[in-house]
Design goal:
This protein has a single domain, classed as Vaccinia Virus protein VP39 (Rossmann fold), CATH 3.40.50. It is 37% helix and 14% strand. It has eleven helices and eight strands. Strands 1, 2, 3, 4, 5, 6, 7 and 8 form an eight-stranded mixed β-sheet that branches.
Length: 285
């Protein structure tokens, strides 16, 4: 779906498929993340789930904010320093301030962005909010990261991106929703393999590496007892590094997101225990 330049398509609240899929009884990661960022596009069940996690790990809102800031710094780097003009952003989330296309097009007005997400709430807001500069383009694809072949075969992708030219594949705070059974490394490799030399991979992923052991144990106990829902899989630094096999890491490599090309001095950044999420950018040779 192409977004008309300078215009917004009204959200279709009566689309039968969307209304069937908008389940207000089950928490959804995109809506919960929106809640942690202070947004309004969430249901009571999302707020309850978010509060349950925050009760055990109060820094979760800091994690969400710092992850968002990492996304913006990474996109700015790719557009301004790496010369990237095409972005495939999977796991878009509900639009907020400074989305990928806004950051990229502020640097390069001709940047083209395809957003991909599978939450119907995101789809509704994408239709209304994801506009483009006149020189560039934005589009939205309703699809799941678990089905990379569908993404790569989509008309929206072919209309928006030229896969003969470098593309930045952006997987920010989404790979941790893939369980081992979802074959996360194969899924990411399938997407990277479809991109030409000179493309980039951006990933952020929650980790327990910096969270105090007692908090990790309490969270596991709450989930096991059914008192808390948590659909994210934490992975270690070594496990996170596997997403970048065969790629060239951009400095400073694999670090907590607060340390990736940080704009604030270390004394003004949150401690690692409050921002326990890895981030990295790598180039495909």
């Amino acid at each position: 779906m192409r977004i008309p330049v300078g215009a917004a398509t009204p959200p279709d609240h009566h689309h039968p498929r969307l209304s069937d899929r908008l389940d207000a009884s089950v928490p959804h990661p995109a809506r919960r993340y929106n809640y942690w960022l202070g947004g309004k596009d969430n249901f009571a069940v999302d707020r309850h789930s978010g509060d349950q996690i925050a009760a055990v790990y109060p820094a979760i809102r800091t994690v969400a904010r710092e992850n968002r800031a990492f996304l913006q710094r990474a996109v700015r780097y790719l557009a301004a320093e790496a010369g990237i003009r095409q972005f495939l952003d999977i796991g878009t989330g509900i639009p907020s301030a400074d989305n990928t296309h806004e950051v990229a097009q502020a640097v390069a007005p001709d940047a083209r962005v395809l957003y991909v997400d599978n939450d119907p709430m995101v789809l509704v807001h994408a239709r209304a909010l994801l506009t483009s500069s006149e020189a560039g383009a934005t589009a939205y694809l309703d699809a799941d990261l678990r089905d990379p072949d569908r993404i790569l075969a989509a008309d929206e992708l072919r209309r928006t991106l030229d896969l003969s030219r470098p593309v930045a594949l952006v997987l920010v705070a989404v790979a941790h929703f893939l369980t081992d059974a979802d074959r996360p490394y194969e899924v990411v490799a399938r997407l990277v393999d479809a991109l030409p030399s000179g493309s980039y991979l951006v990933v952020s992923h929650v980790t327990a590496d910096f969270i105090p052991a007692e908090i990790v144990a309490r969270m596991a106990a709450e989930v096991a007892a059914g008192r808390m829902s948590n659909d994210a899989v934490t992975r270690s630094r070594a496990e996170f590094a596997r997403f970048f096999a065969g790629l060239e890491l951009v400095e400073p490599g694999i670090v907590p997101v607060t340390q990736w090309r940080a704009e604030l001095p270390e004394t003004e950044r949150p401690p690692l225990a409050e921002a326990s999420i890895y981030g990295a950018v790598a180039r495909k040779p």
